[in-house]
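In the current project phase, work has continued on tokenised descriptions of protein folds. One protein thus recorded appears below exactly as we store it.

——
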Amino acid sequence: MPDKDKLVIFDTTLRDGEQSPGASMTKDEKIRIAKALETMKVDVIEAGFPIASPGDFESVQAVAKVIKDSTVCGLARALDKDIERAGEALKPAASSRIHTFIATSPIHMQQKLRMEPDAVLEQAVRAVKQAGQYTDNIEFSPEDAGRSETDFLCRVIEAVIDAGATTINIPDTVGYNIPHQFGELIKTLIERIPNSDKAIFSVHCHNDLGLAVGNSLAAVLNGARQVECTINGLGERAGNAALEEVVMAVRTRQDIFPCDTTLDTTQIMRCSRLVSGITGFPVQPNKAIVGANAFAHESGIHQDGVLKSRETYEIMRAQDVGWSANRIVLGKHSGRNAFKTRLKELNIELATEQELNEAFARFKDLADKKHEIYDEDLQALVADTNWSLENEHYRLVSLRVCSETGETPHANIVLDVGGKECKADADGGGPVDAAFRAIEAIVNSETRLQLYSVNNITSGTDAQGEVTVRLEKAGRIVNGQGADTDIVIASANAYINALNKLIAPEQRAHPQRGDV
């Protein structure tokens, strides 16, 4: 990009994305996503919030150890203990960044922090200086900048740049801004702050009004040169700016944007599917860039136009973001070596021989039911294998469901509970409801079902159904997933998967304590 500025892409899927209720990730899952982001050439990977929990500290440390080509970042409030913890977690990183923040809006300072503006400024400067003991790559965020007073923002930002901050991130924490207003704010800050040329200005926008991408792009047009975003727009509440939308908007409209990213956009689809599979958050069909209908044409007029010239109705090539026809890779006659090789090609690593054996056994079972095995099937299969081996207190042994017109659906189930087989049966409003009631007759979990979602992994009547179940108990929310060609079995496995997560050691806390 000799004539273009570089737009830095800061991915916070592993931190802000994980704050979506039920989206907690294990350490191994975080590593898998981080490696996929690195392959896509993401500039900065925010790996987590080390002070949040021991599990989050270990995850950030583990990501820092394996990522070599991207900068690994840890989040820290403007507190000594947070910054110390982040610095310790990031020690193994080839390139590290500490991202520290404190709220600057009147409502946050008065109602949350109970601090006067001068004290907030002093603490911000102190935090940045302390972060400088661990790295020279320091990012500072004035939380809720979108509702902060401009004069005070200028004071704080000028002071933290003098203290050593190299990136200034302006968050629209609650998704309150609209594009022209937010773009003007970025322009004003860059023009008014005397030392603004000594830092890169960044933005982090939430999608509460559906404007996260619009606000981010408006900021870029007004001088921001880093955008914080997540794969699939994942994030707490309505989510964050979607990485794939920001990147492809900038790439497609080079006639407008004076900058571009250096991402390998052909990796976008792979990352999208990986994050969706791990978190259990399916991508809606009409989602821009990565939705199943993003490059589909139903209208006869559109189909005719595309056949004559793709550019009539497509502004970008599907191949440029990693779309291609589903590739049939394996079948029931495929051997262990072919299976292992394809997993390696998909950048799926199984840590132990036991995991490989278990995954291969599941593959053979699937191949007996489904003639053609696609990459998406393998990704779902491996995700299921990892959780089964790590946290399988409850395991489905057998399930029989009767559903007949005019009759009440009935389920008979056998579960392995800590090595002991338990049986139960129950009626329900439908076969899935009956299966869930039968499970509960055994486990009596006292959970509340918040979400039940079904998504086909591939096309065809023999496709695996992927079911997501969200359970809540005592304020803790988890997502469970199950995949099978039989949707009732997939549903039962998803419910059991969620139950196993509830009793497993908690991977991270979700205190929602301070976010940018």
In short: The chain has four domains: 5-279, 294-324, 328-388, 392-503.
